Amino acid sequence: MFLNDAVRAEKRLTPIFNQHEQACAIAAEGYVRAGNGMGVVNVTTGPGGTNALTGVIGQWLDSIPVIYISGQVKVTTSLYSCPDLHLRQLGDQEINILDIVRPVTKYAAAVLNPLDIRRELETSLYHAFSGRQGPVWLDIPLNIQNATIDPDTLEAAILPDIARPVPSEPAMCDVRDRLRAAKRPAIIAGHGIRRAGAEQDFLILAEALGIPVLTTFNGFDLIPSDHPLFCGRIGTIGNRSGNFVLQNADLLLSVGSRNNIRQISYNWENFGKNAEIISVDIDAAELRKPTVVPHVGICADARAFIVALYTLWRQIPFQTPTDWLSWCQERLRRFPLTPEVPPVVPDGLVDAYWFMASLTAATPADVITVAGNGTACVALFQSGKIKPEQRIFWNSGCASMGYDLPAAIGAATAGRKSICVAGDGSIQMNLAELQTVLNHRLPVKIFLLENNGYSSIRQTQNAFFGGARIGCDPSSGIQLPNMIKLANAYGFRTLELSSHTDLEKTIADTLNGDDPALCVVHLGENEFSPKLSSRTHPDGSIVSSSLEDMAPFLSFDDITANMISKKDDDHEYARKSDDQTSD
Q1: What is the pLDDT of residues 314-335, one digit of tens each?
Q2: Domain 2-153, what fold?
Q3: 176-204 pLDDT per residue, tens
Q4: What distance in Å separates the CA atoms of residue 254 and residue 257, rounded to the nearest whole number?
Q5: 73, 114, 297, 579 - which has most CB atoms within 10 Å?
Q6: From CA 445, how far away is CA 409, in angstroms rounded?
Q7: What pTM was estimated for this model as a whole?
Q8: Which of 475, 432, 213 is nearest to 332 (CA)?
């Protein structure tokens, strides 16, 4: 309670009060991703701390610096007073929050002496930003909160400079020489580039090299979609164009990407099947994991690596073969992000991919777009059109339902209009945050994707269980509320979109003005397309396809026509049209 009063008294701070601690945590992430240094979350003891855990986990996995300050019961009635007894609880509502959060934070400590507060704050901030960034946690008992101190006399923490690992000169010369010798190189641009503040440096380097750029799920907005070097998005829910470039490259330079399973697939042995892989990551452990093992692994800050490589390039300039870049650009023309005309859908419905392309085309570059999990982020990743300086993000590592609205609130508190793209199921997890938007009159525009339940779960059940469903739509136990009525009850301006004819006008009407607005977008029960699928062999075994072989499956002739290297035997792509199962 004394922490709350201190926030009230400190006029340099602007507190934002959410309806739930999970929303507080996720909003802090949205604030950071919108371009701010770090987020701060203040929660109470016991359930206040545990409610925030989903947000902490997302930040731990996606390397987002947020400091958590939790209140705690006074030391004399806390577990801190009798650690050898191993009690479950001593104080009222108390929980040993530090043991819970330590595995998913970079630093977690209790402040048990008021004279330690400066040192602990500085230590926490150091760990949040040093090396691979992430969340930190301080637990402050009630009697420490209420102590009188003289800030000018407090001891500072003795800490080294913020750690930013730099690549060695021999390693950089080796990378340069490999790039120069490559005939078909490509860059995999990951989220670590943005966390290092190297977005502009990255584009300068890519343009100097003339090298095709492939973006990742978490690095989606690092390059404009109309940039001549942009050649697609990769992974199990990437684009055909991006995956064809990935699988035809003879050298892949992965910068700031941890190459997770969603990106490399369960058939990771064939990731970059024709390429030598150079991986640059600030976390040395990521270079040693037992999936995709790089031929060359460099533990370095993404910006330090990019600047060092550009410096070497300026000494002896070279460029990627233009015939390879032309080949990559042709894949993007053959397999565009969206078709030239909208797909045919039943009356009263809108195609998710066509909607996402239209939304991003209509969104001003200074407006931030935040998406939730499922259709919201998958369709946006596959078909969204990125403008220069445009920010679109979601949480990749945790990808929790309920991320969308709180993250959009966090982005909007930074003073920028934000768009929230949320599924009708996901938004229920933090539905009360509609009131937070209204309380602060935040310029949040919500596009609610109504597709009759949990689309991702429904697709999985259709693929693996012959359409037998449970817990994914009204027929199987999930009934969602009428969001127009709910939003009206809260006081939102509401709209509905149910046809391609009205699409551009309804999007424009929703985005118009700075008032909170919610538009329900009526979607069909779309299958994600394209996406990586598994194949059933004659013996009944199910094998994940290689990344270039996405469903709906292309013919053998079509797929081999887009493979420069014919390393694979013919049987890899041979299949009956009905022998496919969704991954």
Answers
A1: 999 999 999 999 999 999 999 9
A2: Rossmann fold (3.40.50)
A3: 999 999 999 999 999 999 999 999 999 99
A4: 6
A5: 73
A6: 10
A7: 0.93
A8: 213
